[in-house]
């Protein structure tokens, strides 16, 4: 039986991860998760400064062919060794994450719906929609606390790449969503509807 594959997209710090975690908790033991961020291209030949200056918010920042290949393998019932991206050094890690196939596969990432090949793989497409002011405040807190960034570097990256790429790629991709979820996991009505839809699939399977 092929897995149910659910794409969860949305702007930076919109609440995608919170929604993904809430759904995984509801289907513990029956769900796996794949993150688009782990498929950033490796840039081993560049210095730290050169890697830090790259645009990580454009579609060509990702090794999307590898992600499509591995997601297809996982959805068909075989395990994968997913790459790992290290935000602190702006590069792919030497580690991998072993992911076993599950009846439900959640795929999370900002630019998921910008790739038609990925959209074609999703049975359900969710877009988490959160106010831009709230998103930037969340990003500042997250990047300083979890990724060792300075406020100056966060501001520079946001103004030079994050916001322009959001307007160019992320926001337009919302039109491809099956369901738009304002406020992510805090939207309990939407969460219940999504959970019921997945339950229905599992019961039929």
Could you characterize the architecture of this molecule?
- It is a single chain.
- The N and C termini lie close together (8 Å).
- Strands 2-5-1-6-7 form a five-stranded parallel β-sheet, with helices on both faces. Strands 3-4 form a two-stranded antiparallel ribbon.
- With 205 residues, the protein is α/β, with parallel strands linked by helices.
- 42% of the residues lie in helices and 21% in strands.
- Strand 3 and strand 4 form a beta hairpin.
Q: What tags apply to this protein structure?
A:
globular; alpha/beta; single chain; two-stranded antiparallel ribbon
SSE inventory with pairings:
Blueprint: E1 4-10, H1 16-26, E2 31-35, H2 48-52, H3 64-75, E3 80-86, E4 91-99, E5 104-108, H4 116-119, E6 124-129, H5 132-146, H6 151-173, E7 179-182, H7 188-204
Parallel strand pairs: 1-5, 1-6, 2-5, 6-7
Antiparallel strand pairs: 3-4
**Low-pLDDT residue spans:** none
Computed CA radius of gyration, to the nearest angstrom: 17 Å
> How would you spell out the order of helices and strands?
EHEHHEEEHEHHEH
* Biggest beta sheet attributes: 5 strands, parallel
Mean pLDDT across all amino acids: 92
Q: Tell me roughly what share of residues is in helical segments.
A: 40-55%
Structural class by sheet pairing and helices: alpha/beta
Task: Give the strand content.
Answer: 15-25%
Question: Strand order, biggest sheet?
Answer: 2-5-1-6-7
Question: What is the overall silhouette?
Answer: globular
Total helices: the number is 7
C-alpha termini separation? 8 Å
Number of strands: 7
